[in-house]
Design goal:
Largest sheet: 4 strands, mixed
Number of strands: 4
Distance between the termini: 87 Å
Order of helices and strands: HHHHHHHHHHHHHHHHHHHHHEHEHHEEH
Strand content: under 5%
Structural class: mainly alpha
């Protein structure tokens, strides 16, 4: 007798394996290119500063200094699992930069793993290699992937574990009586996913409800096997947070969280984002984009309706991803100071990628037998168009990255080189957005005045933007700050380093904190240093 739940028996996998191989070839080509770059050039062009913070903390931890970024304060300003994966890479390292090639390998491998898991999951729910191929192409080669997933932040690890959680849950639901081992494995993967990115709870919580609902008839032992790792594994981490920092949430999250709702700020943030995006395009394009967006919305809604009506199995578990994306974005809108940061929108982008793969698959399947000009089928034409679009996207990202050159990062690295060559070890520096400096000046105490990777004292001062108090509290010797080139200091010793090729007539300098610029800034309680 055929098992009615065995959908594989009724719906074998369809589609050519060659397009899947081509998609993977393009993805691997991108990965190999990034791995081939000299590590400093890679960091200048493609890294995200927040990712470098993980490397600096992991280096300090591996050196026996504990969980600290600056060597002064203990911090929990990071997502824990991504940090723990970095620590072994820096054991025995003389400098942090000497192991950044290994860190890059971790970033690339995790990204490729995430693409592979989502490819398997999409193929499983659609029974189509074509859908999996489209997912590999858009997730592995598109600009957001190149700029975010390979850049050192925790996003690829979360996506890998989230995809694996959905895949294992889908397999679990198909079994009337799952084994306790399968339940425990799923629980471990889900809690690892949570520890890789804490705000993933917006998708993991509804997924957990689905699992509990399914296991209600499987017995208490299966529920306990799944629930035990979910509840017990995070306990040491949260106990450490409470005992050391007095709060469940990491310091970085507390700094970014607004104390109360501010609707005016939310509206202003959205308006500012829309204005910045509109400035990137000629005004004549805006109506065209509006019409295209409306058409895309109708197509997506049609696809969702088709899934709900005819292929509910596809949405059986998958719906938690877009639902989590919506919940997380609403939370960010009303509670987080920064919104629309690319690596914060991991669930939104992944929902888009999976939606593109499934929608394209459904449209092509619906018209697969129709012929167009030249005797080509709709399926063939769509395949060629998709390949051209993705290759063009990857090429455009490459050209943009090489031409833009990210001069601010390059200048920060130059300043860090100067610091290492000219200042004694254990000098205490203070800086906003200090992660680029800290990864090279790894023998210095670099106090991050954003407060994201410090303790509660530093975080509170950072929220008040009280730079002079931070400098005094942590006995900083120098401040690294951007100053207009028009500022011609009368006392040249006050600025120990001047970059040669600063963008926008600004340059990065080290200011001696006991000189006049520091006194003026402290008196006025200002963020920066005025012209002397």
């Amino acid at each position: 007798m055929v098992d009615p739940l065995n959908t594989k028996a009724h719906h074998p996998v369809t589609g050519s394996v060659w397009f899947l191989r081509i998609s993977w070839a393009c993805t691997l080509l991108v990965a190999c290119y990034l791995l081939s770059l000299p590590i400093r050039e890679f960091l200048i062009h493609f890294s995200i500063a927040d990712g470098l913070a993980y490397a600096r903390i992991a280096f300090n931890f591996a050196q026996g200094h504990g969980s600290t970024f600056d060597g002064i304060t203990t911090t929990n300003g990071y997502h824990p699992l991504w940090m723990w994966l970095h620590v072994p890479l820096f054991l025995g390292a003389d400098t942090a930069m000497s192991r950044m090639a290994l860190a890059r390998l971790l970033w690339v491998a995790t990204t490729l793993g995430a693409v592979a898991v989502w490819s398997v999951y999409v193929q499983r729910i659609t029974r189509s290699r074509l859908a999996a191929s489209i997912l590999v192409m858009v997730m592995g080669c598109f600009g957001w992937t190149i700029y975010v997933l390979y850049a050192g932040v925790e996003t690829p690890l979360f996506l890998l574990l989230m995809g694996l959680s959905l895949l294992l849950t889908d397999q679990l639901i198909e079994k009337p009586m799952p084994s306790r081992r399968a339940c425990a494995s799923l629980g471990i993967v889900m809690v690892a996913c949570f520890l890789s990115r804490l705000d993933g709870i917006f998708a993991l919580f509804p997924l957990g409800l689905i699992i509990l609902f399914h296991l209600r008839r499987s017995g208490v032992r299966c529920i306990a096997a799944w629930l035990s790792p979910v509840v017990l594994i995070p306990v040491p981490y949260f106990a450490w947070n409470i005992m050391t920092f007095g709060h469940l949430m990491p310091i970085s999250g507390r700094v970014k969280t607004m104390e109360h709702l501010d609707l005016a700020r939310t509206v202003n943030n959205l308006t500012h984002w829309a204005e910045k995006k509109s400035q990137l395009l000629p005004s004549t394009w805006l109506p065209i984009l509006g019409v295209a967006g409306a058409i895309a919305f109708v197509v997506v809604m049609w696809g969702v309706w088709q899934l709900i009506r005819n292929e509910r199995r596809v949405l059986r578990v998958l719906w938690v991803l877009p639902a989590g994306a919506v919940g997380q974005y609403v939370y960010y809108l009303f509670r987080i100071r920064e919104i629309n940061i690319p690596w914060h929108l991991f669930m939104q982008f992944q929902s888009l990628y999976v939606g593109i793969a499934i929608a394209a698959y459904m449209i092509i399947r619906k018209h697969r037998g129709e012929q167009v000009a030249g005797g080509r089928s709709v399926r063939e034409i769509a395949t060629y168009v998709l390949v051209i679009i993705m290759v063009s996207s990857g090429t455009a990202v490459y050209v943009k990255a090489k031409s833009k050159h990210r001069p601010g990062v390059a200048i920060s690295f130059d300043v860090a080189d100067w610091i290492v060559a000219n200042l004694p070890e254990n000098t205490t520096l203070a800086m906003y957005d200090s992660f680029n400096i800290a990864i090279i000046a790894d023998k210095m105490h670099v106090v991050d005045m954003n407060g994201l990777v410090g303790n509660a004292t530093l975080a509170n001062l950072a929220r008040k933007k009280d730079q002079p108090a931070i400098i005094e509290q942590f006995e900083c010797n120098y401040v690294v700050t951007w100053i207009n080139d028009e500022c011609k200091p009368s006392n040249t010793d006050a600025y120990l380093y001047l970059s040669e090729s600063a963008p926008d007539k600004r340059s990065l300098r080290l200011a001696v904190v006991h000189d006049e610029p520091y006194k003026t800034a402290r008196k006025n309680n200002t963020k920066g240093f005025p012209c002397p």
